[in-house]
Design brief:
Elements lengths: L6 E8 L17 H8 L1 E8 L5 H10 L3 H4 L15 H7 L4 E5 L14 E3 L30 H4 L2 E4 L1 H23 L8 E9 L4 E2 L1 H8 L17 H9 L7 H31 L6 E7 L18 H4 E7 L8 E3 L3 E2 H11 L14 H5 L8 E8 L23 E8 L2 E6 L5 E4 L17 H12 L4 H25 L15 E2 L7
Parallel strand pairs: 1-6, 1-8, 2-10, 2-11, 3-4, 3-6, 5-7
Antiparallel strand pairs: 2-9, 5-16, 8-9, 12-13, 13-14, 14-15
Helix pairs in contact: 2-11, 6-9, 7-9
Protein backbone atom coordinates (compact mmCIF):
# COMPACT_ATOMS: atom_id res chain seq x y z
CA UNK A 1 0.00 0.00 0.00
CA UNK A 2 1.32 3.43 -0.98
CA UNK A 3 2.11 5.57 2.04
CA UNK A 4 0.15 8.78 2.60
CA UNK A 5 -2.61 8.02 0.13
CA UNK A 6 -5.66 10.15 0.94
CA UNK A 7 -8.86 8.95 2.52
CA UNK A 8 -11.86 9.03 0.18
CA UNK A 9 -15.38 9.80 1.36
CA UNK A 10 -17.90 9.65 -1.48
CA UNK A 11 -21.47 10.70 -0.65
CA UNK A 12 -24.34 10.22 -3.09
CA UNK A 13 -27.88 11.37 -2.35
CA UNK A 14 -31.04 10.59 -4.33
CA UNK A 15 -32.90 13.25 -6.33
CA UNK A 16 -31.19 16.38 -5.04
CA UNK A 17 -31.80 19.37 -7.30
CA UNK A 18 -28.60 21.18 -8.31
CA UNK A 19 -30.35 24.46 -7.46
CA UNK A 20 -31.04 23.48 -3.82
CA UNK A 21 -27.78 24.60 -2.25
CA UNK A 22 -27.88 27.79 -0.21
CA UNK A 23 -24.31 28.79 -1.10
CA UNK A 24 -25.47 29.11 -4.72
CA UNK A 25 -28.06 31.69 -3.68
CA UNK A 26 -31.11 29.52 -3.02
CA UNK A 27 -33.01 31.13 -0.13
CA UNK A 28 -35.66 28.39 0.02
CA UNK A 29 -33.35 25.92 1.75
CA UNK A 30 -30.54 25.83 4.32
CA UNK A 31 -27.49 23.65 3.56
CA UNK A 32 -24.74 24.94 5.89
CA UNK A 33 -22.69 21.74 5.82
CA UNK A 34 -22.63 21.36 2.06
CA UNK A 35 -21.93 25.10 1.92
CA UNK A 36 -18.85 24.54 4.09
CA UNK A 37 -17.60 21.82 1.76
CA UNK A 38 -18.05 24.23 -1.12
CA UNK A 39 -16.12 27.00 0.66
CA UNK A 40 -13.26 24.59 1.28
CA UNK A 41 -13.37 23.05 -2.18
CA UNK A 42 -14.86 23.27 -5.66
CA UNK A 43 -18.49 23.43 -6.78
CA UNK A 44 -19.30 22.21 -10.28
CA UNK A 45 -22.44 23.86 -11.67
CA UNK A 46 -22.89 22.02 -14.98
CA UNK A 47 -22.62 18.30 -14.22
CA UNK A 48 -25.05 16.06 -16.12
CA UNK A 49 -26.08 12.58 -15.01
CA UNK A 50 -26.16 9.87 -17.69
CA UNK A 51 -29.83 9.04 -17.23
CA UNK A 52 -32.49 11.01 -15.33
CA UNK A 53 -33.63 7.95 -13.38
CA UNK A 54 -32.08 6.04 -10.50
CA UNK A 55 -30.56 2.71 -11.51
CA UNK A 56 -29.19 3.63 -14.98
CA UNK A 57 -27.65 6.80 -13.55
CA UNK A 58 -26.08 4.98 -10.62
CA UNK A 59 -24.72 2.19 -12.80
CA UNK A 60 -23.22 4.72 -15.24
CA UNK A 61 -21.41 6.47 -12.39
CA UNK A 62 -20.31 3.18 -10.88
CA UNK A 63 -18.86 1.82 -14.15
CA UNK A 64 -17.93 4.97 -16.06
CA UNK A 65 -20.04 3.66 -18.96
CA UNK A 66 -23.20 4.90 -20.66
CA UNK A 67 -26.47 2.93 -20.24
CA UNK A 68 -26.18 1.78 -23.87
CA UNK A 69 -22.80 0.24 -22.95
CA UNK A 70 -23.90 -1.52 -19.74
CA UNK A 71 -27.41 -2.25 -21.11
CA UNK A 72 -28.88 -0.99 -17.86
CA UNK A 73 -31.53 1.44 -19.08
CA UNK A 74 -34.33 0.83 -16.56
CA UNK A 75 -34.71 0.43 -12.81
CA UNK A 76 -35.38 -3.30 -13.36
CA UNK A 77 -32.21 -4.32 -15.16
CA UNK A 78 -29.12 -6.04 -13.77
CA UNK A 79 -25.49 -4.97 -14.10
CA UNK A 80 -23.21 -7.72 -15.40
CA UNK A 81 -20.78 -8.62 -12.61
CA UNK A 82 -17.94 -8.93 -15.14
CA UNK A 83 -18.04 -5.15 -15.71
CA UNK A 84 -15.48 -3.43 -13.45
CA UNK A 85 -16.64 -0.58 -11.23
CA UNK A 86 -14.87 2.23 -9.43
CA UNK A 87 -14.91 -0.04 -6.37
CA UNK A 88 -12.85 -2.60 -8.29
CA UNK A 89 -10.47 0.18 -9.36
CA UNK A 90 -10.09 1.46 -5.79
CA UNK A 91 -9.38 -2.09 -4.65
CA UNK A 92 -6.79 -2.49 -7.39
CA UNK A 93 -5.27 0.77 -6.15
CA UNK A 94 -4.72 -0.62 -2.66
CA UNK A 95 -7.88 0.44 -0.85
CA UNK A 96 -10.49 -1.70 0.81
CA UNK A 97 -13.65 -0.09 -0.64
CA UNK A 98 -16.67 -0.03 1.68
CA UNK A 99 -20.27 0.92 0.85
CA UNK A 100 -22.82 2.01 3.46
CA UNK A 101 -26.43 2.52 2.41
CA UNK A 102 -28.16 2.88 -0.92
CA UNK A 103 -26.81 1.46 -4.16
CA UNK A 104 -30.13 0.46 -5.81
CA UNK A 105 -28.81 -2.61 -7.63
CA UNK A 106 -30.75 -5.67 -8.76
CA UNK A 107 -29.74 -9.32 -8.70
CA UNK A 108 -27.47 -11.66 -6.82
CA UNK A 109 -24.40 -9.39 -6.82
CA UNK A 110 -25.06 -6.64 -4.27
CA UNK A 111 -21.37 -5.72 -3.96
CA UNK A 112 -19.93 -5.13 -7.45
CA UNK A 113 -16.39 -4.65 -6.18
CA UNK A 114 -16.98 -3.41 -2.63
CA UNK A 115 -15.13 -5.40 0.02
CA UNK A 116 -17.78 -4.66 2.63
CA UNK A 117 -21.31 -3.30 2.47
CA UNK A 118 -23.64 -2.29 5.28
CA UNK A 119 -27.35 -1.40 5.60
CA UNK A 120 -28.31 -2.03 1.96
CA UNK A 121 -31.40 -0.97 0.02
CA UNK A 122 -35.04 -1.34 0.95
CA UNK A 123 -36.02 -2.98 -2.34
CA UNK A 124 -35.85 -6.70 -3.02
CA UNK A 125 -32.65 -8.05 -4.51
CA UNK A 126 -34.71 -10.12 -6.97
CA UNK A 127 -37.60 -8.63 -8.91
CA UNK A 128 -40.68 -10.82 -8.62
CA UNK A 129 -39.99 -12.01 -5.07
CA UNK A 130 -43.36 -12.62 -3.39
CA UNK A 131 -42.24 -11.22 -0.07
CA UNK A 132 -42.97 -7.69 1.11
CA UNK A 133 -41.02 -5.50 -1.34
CA UNK A 134 -40.51 -2.74 1.20
CA UNK A 135 -43.51 -0.63 0.30
CA UNK A 136 -44.93 2.34 2.12
CA UNK A 137 -48.14 2.30 4.15
CA UNK A 138 -51.42 2.08 2.23
CA UNK A 139 -52.17 5.81 2.59
CA UNK A 140 -48.74 6.57 1.10
CA UNK A 141 -48.79 3.88 -1.56
CA UNK A 142 -47.43 5.22 -4.83
CA UNK A 143 -45.91 8.34 -3.29
CA UNK A 144 -42.35 7.20 -4.05
CA UNK A 145 -43.04 7.05 -7.78
CA UNK A 146 -43.86 9.58 -10.50
CA UNK A 147 -47.56 9.70 -9.74
CA UNK A 148 -49.94 12.52 -8.82
CA UNK A 149 -50.53 10.80 -5.47
CA UNK A 150 -47.03 11.88 -4.38
CA UNK A 151 -48.14 15.51 -4.78
CA UNK A 152 -51.50 14.95 -3.09
CA UNK A 153 -50.12 13.06 -0.07
CA UNK A 154 -47.44 15.63 0.72
CA UNK A 155 -46.71 17.93 3.63
CA UNK A 156 -45.91 17.07 7.23
CA UNK A 157 -45.00 13.56 8.30
CA UNK A 158 -42.17 11.10 8.11
CA UNK A 159 -40.86 8.81 5.39
CA UNK A 160 -39.19 5.51 6.19
CA UNK A 161 -36.47 6.68 3.80
CA UNK A 162 -35.39 9.22 6.41
CA UNK A 163 -35.11 6.42 8.98
CA UNK A 164 -32.89 4.53 6.54
CA UNK A 165 -30.62 7.55 6.17
CA UNK A 166 -30.46 8.07 9.91
CA UNK A 167 -29.14 4.52 10.30
CA UNK A 168 -26.70 5.04 7.42
CA UNK A 169 -25.34 8.16 9.12
CA UNK A 170 -24.94 6.47 12.51
CA UNK A 171 -23.24 3.48 10.89
CA UNK A 172 -20.85 5.76 8.97
CA UNK A 173 -19.86 7.69 12.08
CA UNK A 174 -19.31 4.43 13.96
CA UNK A 175 -17.22 3.05 11.09
CA UNK A 176 -14.97 6.13 10.94
CA UNK A 177 -14.53 6.19 14.73
CA UNK A 178 -13.57 2.52 14.81
CA UNK A 179 -11.29 2.91 11.81
CA UNK A 180 -9.42 5.80 13.42
CA UNK A 181 -9.14 4.08 16.79
CA UNK A 182 -7.56 1.03 15.12
CA UNK A 183 -4.80 3.05 13.44
CA UNK A 184 -1.50 2.90 15.31
CA UNK A 185 1.79 3.59 13.62
CA UNK A 186 0.87 2.85 10.01
CA UNK A 187 -0.83 5.18 7.58
CA UNK A 188 -3.89 3.35 6.36
CA UNK A 189 -6.49 5.28 4.35
CA UNK A 190 -10.13 4.33 3.82
CA UNK A 191 -12.36 4.48 0.74
CA UNK A 192 -15.90 4.90 1.98
CA UNK A 193 -19.02 5.33 -0.20
CA UNK A 194 -22.24 6.54 1.44
CA UNK A 195 -25.65 6.12 -0.21
CA UNK A 196 -28.58 8.25 0.96
CA UNK A 197 -32.27 8.03 0.01
CA UNK A 198 -33.13 11.68 0.69
CA UNK A 199 -34.46 13.98 -0.62
CA UNK A 200 -36.36 11.49 -2.82
CA UNK A 201 -40.15 11.63 -2.48
CA UNK A 202 -42.47 10.93 -0.57
CA UNK A 203 -42.62 14.70 -0.08
CA UNK A 204 -43.15 14.68 3.67
CA UNK A 205 -40.97 16.03 6.46
CA UNK A 206 -40.99 16.89 10.15
CA UNK A 207 -43.83 19.24 11.14
CA UNK A 208 -41.62 21.94 12.65
CA UNK A 209 -39.24 21.87 9.70
CA UNK A 210 -42.16 21.95 7.29
CA UNK A 211 -43.64 25.00 8.99
CA UNK A 212 -40.32 26.83 8.76
CA UNK A 213 -39.97 26.22 5.04
CA UNK A 214 -43.63 26.66 4.12
CA UNK A 215 -43.36 30.40 4.75
CA UNK A 216 -40.17 30.56 2.69
CA UNK A 217 -40.85 28.64 -0.52
CA UNK A 218 -42.29 30.28 -3.60
CA UNK A 219 -44.26 28.97 -6.54
CA UNK A 220 -42.23 27.58 -9.46
CA UNK A 221 -40.64 30.28 -11.59
CA UNK A 222 -41.50 28.62 -14.93
CA UNK A 223 -45.26 28.19 -15.02
CA UNK A 224 -47.19 25.20 -16.33
CA UNK A 225 -48.47 25.60 -19.89
CA UNK A 226 -51.58 24.35 -21.62
CA UNK A 227 -51.13 20.65 -22.36
CA UNK A 228 -51.24 21.18 -26.12
CA UNK A 229 -48.35 23.66 -25.91
CA UNK A 230 -45.88 21.03 -24.69
CA UNK A 231 -43.74 18.84 -26.91
CA UNK A 232 -45.83 15.75 -27.88
CA UNK A 233 -43.66 13.37 -25.85
CA UNK A 234 -43.97 15.58 -22.78
CA UNK A 235 -47.73 15.70 -23.30
CA UNK A 236 -47.75 11.89 -23.08
CA UNK A 237 -45.63 12.00 -19.92
CA UNK A 238 -47.90 14.48 -18.13
CA UNK A 239 -50.99 12.45 -19.05
CA UNK A 240 -49.39 9.16 -18.03
CA UNK A 241 -48.35 10.46 -14.62
CA UNK A 242 -51.59 12.33 -13.91
CA UNK A 243 -49.67 15.58 -13.53
CA UNK A 244 -51.83 17.93 -15.56
CA UNK A 245 -52.86 21.19 -13.88
CA UNK A 246 -50.80 20.93 -10.72
CA UNK A 247 -52.31 23.23 -8.09
CA UNK A 248 -50.50 26.06 -6.31
CA UNK A 249 -51.17 24.33 -3.01
CA UNK A 250 -49.57 21.09 -4.22
CA UNK A 251 -46.53 22.98 -5.50
CA UNK A 252 -46.03 24.91 -2.27
CA UNK A 253 -46.65 21.92 -0.02
CA UNK A 254 -44.23 19.68 -1.94
CA UNK A 255 -41.55 22.36 -2.17
CA UNK A 256 -41.70 23.00 1.58
CA UNK A 257 -41.40 19.28 2.34
CA UNK A 258 -38.60 18.86 -0.21
CA UNK A 259 -36.64 21.72 1.34
CA UNK A 260 -37.09 20.04 4.70
CA UNK A 261 -35.73 16.74 3.33
CA UNK A 262 -32.71 18.53 1.84
CA UNK A 263 -32.14 20.17 5.22
CA UNK A 264 -32.29 16.77 6.96
CA UNK A 265 -29.82 15.36 4.45
CA UNK A 266 -27.46 18.28 5.03
CA UNK A 267 -27.64 17.81 8.81
CA UNK A 268 -26.66 14.15 8.49
CA UNK A 269 -23.77 14.98 6.18
CA UNK A 270 -22.70 17.52 8.82
CA UNK A 271 -22.50 14.75 11.42
CA UNK A 272 -20.10 12.81 9.21
CA UNK A 273 -17.98 15.93 8.59
CA UNK A 274 -17.81 16.61 12.32
CA UNK A 275 -16.71 13.02 12.90
CA UNK A 276 -13.83 13.51 10.45
CA UNK A 277 -12.84 16.72 12.25
CA UNK A 278 -12.95 15.14 15.71
CA UNK A 279 -10.71 12.37 14.46
CA UNK A 280 -8.41 15.01 12.92
CA UNK A 281 -8.57 13.54 9.41
CA UNK A 282 -10.81 16.09 7.68
CA UNK A 283 -7.98 17.83 5.84
CA UNK A 284 -6.52 14.51 4.68
CA UNK A 285 -9.83 13.25 3.28
CA UNK A 286 -11.11 13.76 -0.25
CA UNK A 287 -14.85 14.39 0.07
CA UNK A 288 -16.99 14.09 -3.04
CA UNK A 289 -20.69 14.91 -2.90
CA UNK A 290 -23.20 14.42 -5.71
CA UNK A 291 -26.64 12.99 -6.47
CA UNK A 292 -27.97 10.50 -9.01
CA UNK A 293 -30.29 13.02 -10.73
CA UNK A 294 -32.34 16.09 -9.91
CA UNK A 295 -35.96 16.96 -9.20
CA UNK A 296 -37.94 19.40 -11.32
CA UNK A 297 -39.88 20.76 -8.33
CA UNK A 298 -42.78 22.13 -10.35
CA UNK A 299 -40.69 24.01 -12.94
CA UNK A 300 -42.30 23.83 -16.41
CA UNK A 301 -45.21 22.08 -14.67
CA UNK A 302 -43.16 18.93 -13.93
CA UNK A 303 -42.16 17.11 -10.76
CA UNK A 304 -39.76 14.20 -10.14
CA UNK A 305 -37.15 13.56 -12.88
CA UNK A 306 -37.43 11.47 -16.11
CA UNK A 307 -37.05 14.40 -18.53
CA UNK A 308 -34.04 16.25 -19.92
CA UNK A 309 -34.97 19.62 -18.48
CA UNK A 310 -32.01 21.06 -16.55
CA UNK A 311 -33.64 20.53 -13.14
CA UNK A 312 -34.04 16.83 -13.88
CA UNK A 313 -30.76 15.91 -15.57
CA UNK A 314 -28.22 18.14 -13.80
CA UNK A 315 -26.79 17.18 -10.43
CA UNK A 316 -25.09 19.06 -7.56
CA UNK A 317 -21.39 18.22 -7.28
CA UNK A 318 -18.78 19.35 -4.74
CA UNK A 319 -15.20 18.11 -4.29
CA UNK A 320 -13.31 19.09 -1.13
CA UNK A 321 -9.74 18.15 -0.21
CA UNK A 322 -8.25 20.95 1.97
CA UNK A 323 -4.76 19.40 2.06
CA UNK A 324 -4.22 19.61 -1.70
CA UNK A 325 -7.01 21.49 -3.51
CA UNK A 326 -7.83 25.17 -3.78
CA UNK A 327 -10.76 26.46 -1.70
CA UNK A 328 -13.94 28.26 -2.75
CA UNK A 329 -13.79 27.61 -6.48
CA UNK A 330 -16.78 27.45 -8.82
CA UNK A 331 -16.43 25.67 -12.17
CA UNK A 332 -19.04 26.09 -14.89
CA UNK A 333 -17.55 23.70 -17.46
CA UNK A 334 -19.98 21.18 -18.98
CA UNK A 335 -19.14 17.87 -17.32
CA UNK A 336 -20.25 14.26 -17.64
CA UNK A 337 -21.14 12.59 -14.35
CA UNK A 338 -18.59 9.83 -14.86
CA UNK A 339 -15.88 12.49 -15.15
CA UNK A 340 -16.32 12.67 -11.35
CA UNK A 341 -15.72 8.92 -11.19
CA UNK A 342 -12.49 9.31 -13.17
CA UNK A 343 -11.45 12.19 -10.90
CA UNK A 344 -11.89 10.15 -7.72
CA UNK A 345 -9.70 7.40 -9.15
CA UNK A 346 -7.09 9.89 -10.32
CA UNK A 347 -6.89 11.74 -6.99
CA UNK A 348 -6.45 8.45 -5.12
CA UNK A 349 -3.80 7.20 -7.58
CA UNK A 350 -6.02 4.24 -8.48
CA UNK A 351 -6.15 2.71 -11.97
CA UNK A 352 -8.72 4.11 -14.35
CA UNK A 353 -11.65 2.08 -15.67
CA UNK A 354 -10.43 0.63 -19.01
CA UNK A 355 -13.47 1.32 -21.23
CA UNK A 356 -14.72 4.50 -19.60
CA UNK A 357 -14.80 7.78 -21.50
CA UNK A 358 -14.69 9.66 -18.21
CA UNK A 359 -11.98 12.33 -17.96
CA UNK A 360 -10.30 13.40 -14.75
CA UNK A 361 -10.89 16.96 -13.57
CA UNK A 362 -7.54 17.11 -11.78
CA UNK A 363 -6.24 19.97 -13.92
CA UNK A 364 -9.36 22.03 -13.31
CA UNK A 365 -8.95 21.41 -9.57
CA UNK A 366 -5.23 22.02 -9.23
CA UNK A 367 -4.12 24.39 -12.00
CA UNK A 368 -5.33 27.36 -14.01
CA UNK A 369 -5.55 25.20 -17.13
CA UNK A 370 -8.97 25.96 -18.60
CA UNK A 371 -8.83 23.66 -21.64
CA UNK A 372 -11.84 21.39 -21.55
CA UNK A 373 -14.31 19.98 -24.07
CA UNK A 374 -17.71 21.26 -22.94
CA UNK A 375 -19.89 18.28 -23.80
CA UNK A 376 -22.17 15.92 -21.86
CA UNK A 377 -24.66 13.22 -22.86
CA UNK A 378 -27.56 11.45 -21.18
CA UNK A 379 -29.98 8.65 -22.18
CA UNK A 380 -33.51 7.73 -21.18
CA UNK A 381 -34.78 4.45 -22.64
CA UNK A 382 -37.74 2.48 -21.32
CA UNK A 383 -39.59 -0.77 -22.06
CA UNK A 384 -42.53 -1.32 -24.38
CA UNK A 385 -45.95 -1.30 -22.64
CA UNK A 386 -47.34 -3.70 -25.27
CA UNK A 387 -44.94 -6.45 -24.25
CA UNK A 388 -46.63 -9.61 -22.90
CA UNK A 389 -45.29 -11.35 -19.79
CA UNK A 390 -44.81 -15.12 -19.43
CA UNK A 391 -48.52 -15.51 -18.61
CA UNK A 392 -49.55 -13.67 -21.76
CA UNK A 393 -50.59 -10.48 -19.95
CA UNK A 394 -49.75 -7.18 -21.63
CA UNK A 395 -47.33 -4.86 -19.89
CA UNK A 396 -48.10 -1.24 -19.11
CA UNK A 397 -47.74 -1.63 -15.37
CA UNK A 398 -44.67 0.58 -15.43
CA UNK A 399 -45.54 4.27 -15.55
CA UNK A 400 -42.50 4.85 -17.77
CA UNK A 401 -43.69 2.45 -20.49
CA UNK A 402 -45.47 3.37 -23.70
CA UNK A 403 -46.20 1.54 -26.97
CA UNK A 404 -42.93 1.21 -28.86
CA UNK A 405 -40.97 1.97 -25.72
CA UNK A 406 -39.02 5.17 -25.12
CA UNK A 407 -35.69 5.94 -26.77
CA UNK A 408 -34.56 9.44 -25.86
CA UNK A 409 -31.10 10.97 -25.69
CA UNK A 410 -29.70 14.41 -24.85
CA UNK A 411 -26.47 16.13 -25.75
CA UNK A 412 -25.15 19.38 -24.31
CA UNK A 413 -22.26 20.94 -26.24
CA UNK A 414 -21.13 24.40 -25.23
CA UNK A 415 -24.24 26.61 -25.10
CA UNK A 416 -26.39 24.25 -27.18
CA UNK A 417 -28.58 21.43 -25.90
CA UNK A 418 -30.45 19.02 -28.17
CA UNK A 419 -33.01 16.47 -26.99
CA UNK A 420 -33.65 13.58 -29.38
CA UNK A 421 -36.97 11.72 -29.11
CA UNK A 422 -37.33 8.65 -31.34
CA UNK A 423 -40.61 9.01 -33.22
CA UNK A 424 -40.95 12.73 -32.48
CA UNK A 425 -39.24 15.91 -33.56
CA UNK A 426 -36.23 16.88 -31.41
CA UNK A 427 -35.86 19.99 -29.28
CA UNK A 428 -33.01 22.50 -29.41
CA UNK A 429 -32.16 25.15 -26.82
CA UNK A 430 -29.46 27.78 -26.48
CA UNK A 431 -28.80 27.74 -22.73
CA UNK A 432 -26.73 30.93 -22.78
CA UNK A 433 -29.55 32.97 -24.28
CA UNK A 434 -32.40 30.88 -22.86
CA UNK A 435 -31.35 29.22 -19.56
CA UNK A 436 -34.96 28.35 -18.67
CA UNK A 437 -35.48 26.36 -21.90
CA UNK A 438 -38.51 28.34 -23.01
CA UNK A 439 -37.63 28.86 -26.68
CA UNK A 440 -37.32 25.67 -28.74
CA UNK A 441 -35.09 26.58 -31.68
CA UNK A 442 -35.45 23.32 -33.62
CA UNK A 443 -37.42 24.95 -36.43
CA UNK A 444 -35.15 27.98 -36.78
CA UNK A 445 -33.30 27.69 -40.12
CA UNK A 446 -30.45 29.78 -38.74
CA UNK A 447 -29.66 26.88 -36.39
CA UNK A 448 -29.76 24.13 -39.05
CA UNK A 449 -26.01 23.44 -38.94
CA UNK A 450 -25.79 23.05 -35.16
CA UNK A 451 -29.04 21.03 -35.14
CA UNK A 452 -27.76 18.58 -37.78
CA UNK A 453 -24.34 18.37 -36.16
CA UNK A 454 -25.77 17.48 -32.74
CA UNK A 455 -28.22 14.94 -34.17
CA UNK A 456 -25.39 13.26 -36.07
CA UNK A 457 -23.31 13.22 -32.88
CA UNK A 458 -26.12 11.55 -30.95
CA UNK A 459 -26.73 8.90 -33.61
CA UNK A 460 -23.06 8.19 -34.36
CA UNK A 461 -22.83 5.42 -31.76
CA UNK A 462 -26.43 5.16 -30.57
CA UNK A 463 -29.14 3.37 -32.57
CA UNK A 464 -32.67 3.73 -31.13
CA UNK A 465 -34.07 0.92 -33.31
CA UNK A 466 -31.37 -1.50 -32.18
CA UNK A 467 -31.87 -0.44 -28.56
CA UNK A 468 -35.62 -1.12 -28.81
CA UNK A 469 -34.99 -4.62 -30.17
CA UNK A 470 -32.35 -5.31 -27.55
CA UNK A 471 -34.65 -4.17 -24.74
CA UNK A 472 -37.36 -6.56 -25.96
CA UNK A 473 -34.93 -9.49 -25.61
CA UNK A 474 -33.72 -8.28 -22.23
CA UNK A 475 -37.34 -7.99 -21.10
CA UNK A 476 -37.95 -11.63 -22.02
CA UNK A 477 -34.96 -12.63 -19.88
CA UNK A 478 -36.19 -10.43 -17.04
CA UNK A 479 -39.71 -11.87 -17.05
CA UNK A 480 -38.39 -15.44 -16.80
CA UNK A 481 -36.26 -14.41 -13.83
CA UNK A 482 -39.21 -12.65 -12.20
CA UNK A 483 -41.36 -15.79 -12.54
CA UNK A 484 -38.47 -17.81 -11.06
CA UNK A 485 -38.22 -15.43 -8.11
CA UNK A 486 -41.99 -15.46 -7.62
CA UNK A 487 -42.09 -19.26 -7.36
CA UNK A 488 -38.76 -19.97 -5.61
CA UNK A 489 -38.58 -16.95 -3.28
CA UNK A 490 -34.76 -16.63 -3.13
CA UNK A 491 -33.20 -15.05 -0.05
CA UNK A 492 -32.00 -11.47 -0.27
CA UNK A 493 -28.22 -11.23 -0.01
CA UNK A 494 -28.28 -7.77 1.53
CA UNK A 495 -31.32 -5.67 2.34
CA UNK A 496 -32.59 -3.04 4.74
CA UNK A 497 -36.14 -3.90 5.76
CA UNK A 498 -38.38 -0.88 5.26
CA UNK A 499 -40.95 -0.88 8.05
CA UNK A 500 -44.07 0.88 6.73
CA UNK A 501 -44.95 1.80 10.32
CA UNK A 502 -42.14 4.34 10.07
CA UNK A 503 -44.21 6.19 7.47
CA UNK A 504 -46.65 8.88 8.48
CA UNK A 505 -48.36 11.78 6.75
CA UNK A 506 -50.53 14.27 8.56
CA UNK A 507 -52.70 15.96 5.97
CA UNK A 508 -55.10 17.03 8.72
CA UNK A 509 -52.38 19.28 10.11
CA UNK A 510 -51.79 21.18 6.90
CA UNK A 511 -54.24 23.97 7.67
CA UNK A 512 -51.44 26.03 9.21
Amino acid sequence: MEKNKPNLLFIKSDQHSFRYLSHLGNHEVETPNLDELARLGTTFTNVYCHSPICVPSRVAFLTGLMPSETEVWTNDQILNSAVPTYAHALGAGGYKPVQIGRMHLNGLDQYHGFSERYIGDHNRNFLGSPRDPGTHQSHMKGTAGPNRISLVQSGTGQSAYEIHDRIVTDTTVEYINQFCSSIKDETRPFALSIGYMLPHQPYVCNKDVYRRYRDRVKLPQIKEKRLEDYHPYLQWWKKNTGSIKITDEENLRCKAAYSGLVSSLDNMIGEIINCLKKNEIFNETIIVYTSDHGDQLGEHGFWWKQTFYEDSVKVPTIISYPKALKPNIEVDKVINHFDITATMLDLTNSPGLPRSQGKSLRNLLTTDDCSWENVAVSEYCMDDSDFADVSGNLGGRDVHAKPGGVQNKMIRRDEWKLVFYEGYKPQLFNLFEDPHELNDRIGDLKNKDIRDSLINEILADWNPTAIHKRMINLKKDQLIQQEWAKLTDPDDMLRWDLDPLNDSSRLDELNL
